[in-house]
Structures are given as structure tokens and as C-alpha cells.
């Protein structure tokens, strides 16, 4: 079976989580780098990673890597790659890219040359002079860093954080991939009760439920590479069937959320229903000042609003003070909070038992863990 070299871009700080899940899927040559994970495998791994990855942003095929300091070098090296393996005579192949700290810094010029080189390669292979590009789309991207060029083909289409259950996320959404990572890092199990007193559109609660029930996040969406001739339709059918067989809806997991906006309460439950997990999620209208956990065990994972997103800084900091009062520290209770505010621990009133640097989009944050 043909093997493909692939790349899974991810949010900074999630590289190990992505690498671990790819290894669990059977991917080969897994190597984590800054903001991405390299791996290889057959067509089934491409389908499997798209369907099952909770933490990666997308899956790309790495067509080739080389150095280029002139447009002539760029053209020749691109043309030398086996594009006919991926692109049919009728397929569309738009090109975009970026360049950082490189001799070739003009993106439009690089774009034009990469496109021309691919066309010249395919002309020779298919013995035609014109490509209508009316077929399935292969989105090609180039990335040039310090004169090292990488050529990639996207297999995902829309980013993998788009699971399909969140049509409207309200203000200041948390990416599903980051929410899933927060749940994973908080060590939530299939018999846990998960709490979120700032649940918004319900992303953390839903990702927790999907994870506990082992529901693949890409089960209910489509991917660009389903139209790729070199990935047989049977591969997609088989991988989806395998993912369905892994679901366990009998686990005792529960999720409890609240928000002080009635529209968010409705939206969270609507999203939970779309995700197929509304039977284990309950969301109510409440202020964080009234938050409490009625049992001896529970894991709170939350993304409180903060000044850079929705509130002025002082209002956000008052919320942190309130959280410090109502997040009671006792055996069996754990709390995970994400925040970009370096004063969070002081305002919360307790130094975290553990911290981890993550990014919420372009915003540098810390994930604060309280579990002792």
C-alpha cells in the first residue's frame, strides 16, 4: 500500500497530545515540532486522523521539501515532485503560501511560480496543454522558512476544530480543539462529572462528553480528501464504521454547565443536541457567584471571560476574585482554568498546583490546575 508523509498543524502547546493520539491511531514516524506533528502512513491513516483527531487543526500531505534561494530553484524543485500522484487531469489545484526570513519573500511571485511548475509537470504527464480545473479541489500550500520550502496538500477542507455541532458560538468562542485539550489535560474519565460555570455555547461540556463516550469528533462531517482519487471510498467507509464501533453511550459521564446569559444556555443545549450528547449534559441559568459542587467528586474546566475578549480588565479580575471564593478546595474536587492574565493566581487567591502554557488563537494563556 502506498505510504504518505503527512503534517498535522496544531495550536502551540498541543503538539504532544497530537503526537500521542496519532501514535494510538497507528501512524508511523511520528515527530512533534513547534506547532505541528509529522507522521506517515497509508491512505487509511489520512482518513483516520481526519475522523478521530481531537487536537489537530488539520491534516496535510507533505509532497516535498527542498531549499530554494532563487525563483529558478523554486521552479525546478517544484516541477521535480510527483504531482501526478495527487492531482488528476481534471482536478482544481489553487496555490497559496507564506514566506518567513527567506530570499524568496514575494508571496504572489512564489505563488505564480509554484502553480506554473505544477502545470508544466502535469502537462508532460497527461499530454495536455490546458487544465480546466473543474474537478475536485486539491488545495496546495507552500511554506518557506529560512529558504527551506515545503509543499503541502490539504486533506481536511474546513479546519478539524469544526466538528459540525456549533453553528453559532456566541461571543469569544473557544476552539473545539483547545477545549478538548483542556478536558484531556484535566484527566477527565468516562465516569467523571464535568462542571463549567462559564459554559457559553457549551464547547467544553460537549468535548468532554464526546471524549468520555469515545465519539470521534469528525464522525458527522465531511473532508476534502473524500473526493481524492488516491484515497478509495472504501477506506472512508471502513474508518467511519470502525469509529462508530468504538462509541460507548453507556458510560456514566455527566456534564453540568451554567451561564448568566439565557441565550447562551439555550445555545449550549442546542449544540449538545446536535452533537448527540444532550442526554448527559445539563445547562442552567446562573451566576458564577452561586456556583457550587454538591458532590464529593467533580472536575471543573472553564474559560472565564477576560479583558482582551469581552470584558474590561477590572470586571474580568473581579470574576477571578469571585472564582477564588466559590471554587472550594476539598478532596475529590479539581479545577482547571485558562487565562491570559498573569495576575490570575494572585486574584484567585491561590497559587496553582501546576501550570501549562497554551494559546487561545493568538492569545498566549496559562492553563492553571488546582487538584491538591
Descriptive notes:
The protein has 2 domains: 4-154, VC0802-like (2-Layer Sandwich); 176-215 and 248-370, Rossmann fold (3-Layer(aba) Sandwich). It is of the alpha/beta class and 372 residues long. The chain is built from 10 helices and 14 strands. Strands 2-3-1-4-7-6-5 form a 7-stranded mixed beta sheet. A 7-stranded mixed beta sheet has the order 10-9-8-11-12-14-13, with helices on one face.
Which key phrases capture this entry?
372 residues; alpha/beta; VC0802-like; Rossmann fold; 2 domains; 7-stranded mixed beta sheet; 10 helices; 14 strands; 31% helix; 23% strand; elongated
Short description:
The chain has helices at residues 15-24, 43-52, 71-79, 107-126, 176-185, 203-212, 233-245, 262-274, 313-326, 344-348, and strands spanning 4-9, 28-33, 36-41, 60-67, 95-100, 140-145, 148-154, 193-196, 254-259, 281-285, 298-302, 333-339, 354-360, 363-370. It has 372 residues and is an alpha/beta fold.
Task: Chart the SSEs and their pairings.
Layout: E1 4-9, H1 15-24, E2 28-33, E3 36-41, H2 43-52, E4 60-67, H3 71-79, E5 95-100, H4 107-126, E6 140-145, E7 148-154, H5 176-185, E8 193-196, H6 203-212, H7 233-245, E9 254-259, H8 262-274, E10 281-285, E11 298-302, H9 313-326, E12 333-339, H10 344-348, E13 354-360, E14 363-370
Parallel strand pairs: 5-6, 8-9, 8-11, 9-10, 11-12
Antiparallel strand pairs: 1-3, 1-4, 2-3, 4-7, 6-7, 12-14, 13-14
Amino acid at each position: 500500500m502506498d505510504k504518505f508523509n503527512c503534517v498535522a498543524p496544531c495550536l502551540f502547546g498541543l503538539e504532544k497530545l497530537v503526537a500521542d493520539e496519532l501514535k494510538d491511531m497507528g501512524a508511523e514516524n511520528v515527530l512533534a515540532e513547534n506547532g505541528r506533528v509529522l507522521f506517515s502512513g497509508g491512505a487509511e491513516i489520512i482518513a483516520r486522523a481526519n475522523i478521530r483527531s481531537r487536537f489537530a487543526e488539520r491534516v496535510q500531505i507533505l509532497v516535498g521539501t527542498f531549499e530554494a534561494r532563487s525563483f529558478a530553484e523554486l521552479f525546478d524543485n517544484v516541477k521535480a515532485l510527483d504531482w501526478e500522484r495527487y492531482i488528476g487531469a481534471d482536478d482544481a489545484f489553487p496555490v497559496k503560501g507564506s514566506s518567513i526570513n527567506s530570499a524568496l519573500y514575494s508571496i504572489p511571485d512564489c505563488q505564480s511560480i509554484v502553480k506554473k511548475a505544477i502545470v508544466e509537470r502535469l502537462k508532460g504527464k497527461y499530454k495536455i496543454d490546458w487544465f480546466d480545473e473543474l474537478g475536485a479541489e486539491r488545495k496546495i500550500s507552500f511554506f518557506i522558512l529560512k529558504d527551506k520550502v515545503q509543499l503541502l496538500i490539504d486533506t481536511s477542507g474546513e479546519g478539524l476544530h469544526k466538528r459540525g455541532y456549533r453553528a453559532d458560538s456566541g461571543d469569544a468562542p473557544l476552539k473545539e480543539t483547545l477545549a478538548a485539550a483542556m478536558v484531556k489535560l484535566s484527566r477527565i474519565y468516562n465516569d467523571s462529572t464535568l462542571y463549567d460555570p462559564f459554559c457559553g455555547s457549551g464547547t467544553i461540556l460537549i468535548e468532554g462528553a464526546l471524549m468520555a463516550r469515545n465519539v470521534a469528533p469528525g464522525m458527522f462531517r465531511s473532508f476534502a480528501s473524500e473526493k481524492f482519487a488516491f484515497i478509495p471510498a472504501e477506506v472512508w467507509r471502513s474508518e467511519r464504521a470502525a469509529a462508530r464501533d468504538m462509541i460507548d453511550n453507556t458510560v456514566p459521564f455527566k456534564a453540568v454547565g451554567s451561564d448568566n446569559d439565557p441565550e447562551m444556555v439555550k445555545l449550549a443545549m442546542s449544540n449538545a443536541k446536535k452533537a448527540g450528547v444532550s442526554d448527559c449534559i445539563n445547562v442552567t441559568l446562573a451566576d458564577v457567584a452561586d456556583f457550587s459542587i454538591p458532590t464529593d467528586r467533580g472536575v471543573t474546566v472553564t474559560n472565564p471571560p477576560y479583558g482582551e475578549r469581552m470584558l474590561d480588565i477590572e470586571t474580568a479580575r473581579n470574576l477571578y476574585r469571585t472564582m477564588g471564593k466559590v471554587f472550594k478546595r476539598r478532596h475529590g474536587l479539581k479545577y482547571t482554568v485558562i487565562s491570559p492574565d498573569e495576575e490570575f493566581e494572585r486574584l484567585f487567591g491561590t497559587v496553582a498546583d501546576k501550570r501549562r502554557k497554551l494559546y487561545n488563537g493568538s492569545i498566549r494563556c496559562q492553563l492553571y490546575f488546582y487538584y491538591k
